[in-house]
Amino acid sequence: MSFADIKESAYMALDTVRANKLRSALTILGVSVGLLIAMGSASELEYHLLLARDLGFLPEEDYGRLDALTTEVKRMRASLIQKTRQRTAVG
Fold it and tell me: Where are the domains of the chain?
């Protein structure tokens, strides 16, 4: 595949997106809703980890590691949500 073919494919893809703005916006909206639901699930996981630790089912060192991973995932999701919203506002 030559550079000209790749360039032509990119232009065709952009033309398709422009022609289907509503469809693209709805797709982005669907992704955003899914990400918000996932963010809620991560918050619920944080609570369950805290509860398990407080009840003595989860050792402190495991809690610290799992809580840090959950926080990292939430930050990544928040960043993705923000980028999706910016893209929707621009589009």
Answer: 21-90
